[in-house]
Amino acid sequence: MKTKNISLGLIGAGRIGTFHAETIVYRVPNATLVSIADPAEGVAAALAARLGVEKSTSNISTLINDPDLQGVIIASPARFHTDLVIQACEAGKHVFVEKPMALTIENAKRAIDAAENAGVTLQVGFNRRWDQAFAEGRSAIAAGKIGAPQLLRSLTRDPGPFCADPAKIPQWTIFYETLIHDFDTLNWLNNGSKPVEVYATADALVAPEAKSSGYLDTAVVTIKYDNGAIAVAEANFSALYGYDIRGEVFGSEGMVTMGEMARSSMSLYSASGVAQDTLRKDTERFMWPYAAEFQGFVDAIAGERIEAPTGEDAKMALAIALAAIESVKSNAPVSIASVAQT
Amino acid sequence: MKTKNISLGLIGAGRIGTFHAETIVYRVPNATLVSIADPAEGVAAALAARLGVEKSTSNISTLINDPDLQGVIIASPARFHTDLVIQACEAGKHVFVEKPMALTIENAKRAIDAAENAGVTLQVGFNRRWDQAFAEGRSAIAAGKIGAPQLLRSLTRDPGPFCADPAKIPQWTIFYETLIHDFDTLNWLNNGSKPVEVYATADALVAPEAKSSGYLDTAVVTIKYDNGAIAVAEANFSALYGYDIRGEVFGSEGMVTMGEMARSSMSLYSASGVAQDTLRKDTERFMWPYAAEFQGFVDAIAGERIEAPTGEDAKMALAIALAAIESVKSNAPVSIASVAQT
Amino acid sequence: MKTKNISLGLIGAGRIGTFHAETIVYRVPNATLVSIADPAEGVAAALAARLGVEKSTSNISTLINDPDLQGVIIASPARFHTDLVIQACEAGKHVFVEKPMALTIENAKRAIDAAENAGVTLQVGFNRRWDQAFAEGRSAIAAGKIGAPQLLRSLTRDPGPFCADPAKIPQWTIFYETLIHDFDTLNWLNNGSKPVEVYATADALVAPEAKSSGYLDTAVVTIKYDNGAIAVAEANFSALYGYDIRGEVFGSEGMVTMGEMARSSMSLYSASGVAQDTLRKDTERFMWPYAAEFQGFVDAIAGERIEAPTGEDAKMALAIALAAIESVKSNAPVSIASVAQT
Amino acid sequence: MKTKNISLGLIGAGRIGTFHAETIVYRVPNATLVSIADPAEGVAAALAARLGVEKSTSNISTLINDPDLQGVIIASPARFHTDLVIQACEAGKHVFVEKPMALTIENAKRAIDAAENAGVTLQVGFNRRWDQAFAEGRSAIAAGKIGAPQLLRSLTRDPGPFCADPAKIPQWTIFYETLIHDFDTLNWLNNGSKPVEVYATADALVAPEAKSSGYLDTAVVTIKYDNGAIAVAEANFSALYGYDIRGEVFGSEGMVTMGEMARSSMSLYSASGVAQDTLRKDTERFMWPYAAEFQGFVDAIAGERIEAPTGEDAKMALAIALAAIESVKSNAPVSIASVAQT
């Protein structure tokens, strides 16, 4: 085996943390997952044992201060992200943090500053950027193939049936954790333009009984950009046909579309018509984009110039999320300037 | 030849009026186009001569009062629609009127009342309802195959390059004449639910120099319905790849999508990849839906029960257009109730 | 109505003859179906009454010699085709004959000669040539977009379930009546090249119990052309998913593919995946190609230069059918030269 | 890192051997590539150094007899395959051999016997079986979803432009090395049925100047099976649009199709229509199927029951290749029984 010369630690061994561990161990050459930390007793140890990872701990500071690690991957619950980013930066580690990097603009700035002061890489888990179709679409746009972007669309529909407990989902999750992907995707596809104003409408259509406690599972957000383009981001928590991630950018010279549902090119023709099976899970849909994003992180640590989502990108996506939340509260358009000095 | 037993007259021999005449002559059995009227000297006569239509006139009243006609097709400029509908109803003719049937709710009601009082059929030119894919989508929704609608999308992008003179386009055309199709389509696909509130944003991105005179060519409209569903309608005047008409309805049990751009199933594979040509014109894209809508009109005159867009449907779509216009003016959401007692 | 200035007569009011009558009456401007003949008592009269056709007769000669007719459409059983073509030519009528025009090369030559001597148009019912996708594919090939053709495929799968009585199907029908379409399509797509040698294999897989009486329902035919290209034609009598007509031409610079099964662009996404309904009948799949082929016939009668399948094309397709039949009998490749001096 | 507990050696560091090495090192957990052998001086060493593989040698026997290895991957030129399989089996190693496993039935039997006598796994490199779409198609067939297979198609078109030296391509390569994939695919998809008779036609259409020395680059093969199904396999060495691998199985109840050319779901719409880029290389098209086939090999060594192509499968595919070659020589159908006691 080639020496795996970038040593990584993982904070958080929940569903996605576990998958990130598997991705690094199985699908990222040049990286070694050296340590896993999770405060839940025994969880890190069990995962480390299963994957042959050397160290595990329930003390996150132990991992962050481990001199063997070059980079840290933060997959904790969202509310801890900012502080962990800052601690890791201060310990001199390169940082990969799952979205959202922060829940306030102030915190986003603190994280950005921490990375800058420490001179480390700070990469955010906007996985859609590493999907081949989205990357090809972005390249075509950047190459001018559709002219000036005028209308954009990005959507996230999580696979159903919805079986979470709405009471355990933090308020505004659909903006902070779901649509944050779409907000970043739109900013990125719109080729350097900045969001100006946001109008959002949201509802609890999947689990209407939970609406009174502030829970929302369906949202549509309109975003005006400083190049005149108008974007729509849309999310829902329960698509029975699978995990639906699509993007579309229409411009003065043409259009790109990205995303499809078919699981493979196999089509079955029968007396009832033609059918294809669909992609059902994020870990199936994004298996290789996840590998690519960690490969990018590892390559960046190794000194290569990688185009990856940064702390600034996270702050810009957050600004849209905050404006969308204000818009839902006020049922009025909200300017980005009013929620963030960006 | 079978006796063509429904006699029709056409008012307006402009671009779409001419195409409607061809459609009736060439593609609608059981109908005979007996007369054409157009105030522009010689225009009706020339078209009648070309298509073998018996009568022509530059006096519209002459046509409306022609006792030989059972039905009248109104394809004049939009601002004359209502009055012509009323005159034709009062003359006892069945009426097909191009969209928009009216530009005010008051006028919409007048047209509806006129048809009701005269006991004639009043059908509105929402051609998308007659497209096979949209009709199949609507049937699937009505049959419950996608559960309760939650998120809808309808878009119209006219084929580019845009080569009209913006100064000749009446203000708010994108809402009154373009998006009116999408508003009706969304109302129809949303299976009986009623629009409640509208937020619209619009801009002149195709011809920005004309914006100062109130011209708009790009718009995004968010509509909330009384079943909780949220719809987005979107339009642009210049799609370089052709005439782009699509619809999507997402519900609690699934999704339907309608519309595609490929002109045929022919794909060309070459060193540069795989390519298909696209549909370029409304008259190509909707050749057979246009024939179907007039067949429906003729069948209705002949006494069959036909599901076709009515004056009430036109009024409901207009209400959304009016709310959208108010929303653009105020940059705020506007309730349907504030523009229409529907 | 425009004067319908080409007067046509129809021989044969069976399934496809009836559909041809409807096509001419409803979907072909400039043509008037003036007379229908069918030897079965009352059949022509009933169809004529339903469609408003002026004359009907059970005497085919009456129709052929009717001085009111400019063109005759022959949709009788295949074994009568040649004699009817010759009679109609001798009566000075332009002739459209359903495939196969003849069942022997000798007869094909007699039909060609009769038309030539009479100076009339002789068009054969190879409807696939009038399908938009196939026509676009042929144009791309003729324009050199795929370079020199090297591998071709054409297939016909009739919609199932098969419910005919095998005993009533003449022997070799799969070659004479089904694959004859594919043979012509391949000759036409291969851009002027000539077939040289044929190998065919066939079986009764749909109704195996009928095989002992010579019935065949499944066949694969390999054809070598004088430009080196190798073609495969394939047929089956029972496709449960519908009427499957496809073509593919691979060349030195690329490939064209034609044909698809989806009935419309409507896709239904549900818990079981994504599905589309399929085209089920030839009259649905080829409704407009049928209209186009008769429009072409009418235009040719009116004096326009139309590219349409000729008697020579029918003879060439027949030569392949005959060679294929010989090949099945001998289980060996058979040269075109051995069955036809073409 | 998880202990990589299956130790593998690789024989042959040419184009595909190098890619196999990368696949094992980068994309197959649980496997360690311990040694590489290639007779060309320095080649194995360079690859081993680049990938961090422990050992390298120019002596193939050294590798085969290395007690550290559990399995050996044979990616040498085809003519050495059989002897290397036998040596590796005799050394007690599990064997993965690239196709073709043997060039004669006698040799195929020797290889099969060697593995049986040694009690080791013998897996053959039919990568198409590990492609998700083909595997799904095969599952649907095995589950009876298309009824009894009646017509099959499998094709291989290598990406062009062709830039090899025809003189360096061994005679009959298109059958032994290219179509062997399709022969195995058809046997496998046809669900346990056995080939009975073969008719093949082939030509040099890509490099016609080399035909006189026996070089062939285009072939079509018809195969009759003992369940009555008729299959067509087709190959060409130069598809300018990329690497084209497709399969189709039509049966009494329906059809499955597998394979597509689009590189991703990104579509670009522009004034010239809609376009997608295509897959260009086997290593791009089959990156993950290659990983899956080695994962299967490793899992089999680890004791799991894996459905993988065996020596018997290789012998059956070879029998078709041999019959096809005889058929080209004789221009007549050739029975499988005449080339192989299978």
From TrEMBL, chains A, B, C, D:
Domain Gfo/Idh/MocA-like oxidoreductase N-terminal: residue ranges: 7-126
Every GFO/IDH/MocA-like oxidoreductase domain range: 136-256
InterPro entries, alphabetized: Gfo/Idh/MocA-like_OxRdtase_N, GFO_IDH_MocA-like_dom, NAD(P)-bd_dom_sf
Keywords annotated in UniProt: Oxidoreductase
UniProt key word S-adenosyl-L-methionine: no
Record-annotated membrane-spanning stretches: none
Family statement drawn from the similarity comment of this UniProt entry: Belongs to the Gfo/Idh/MocA family.
Identification of the protein by name: Gfo/Idh/MocA family oxidoreductase
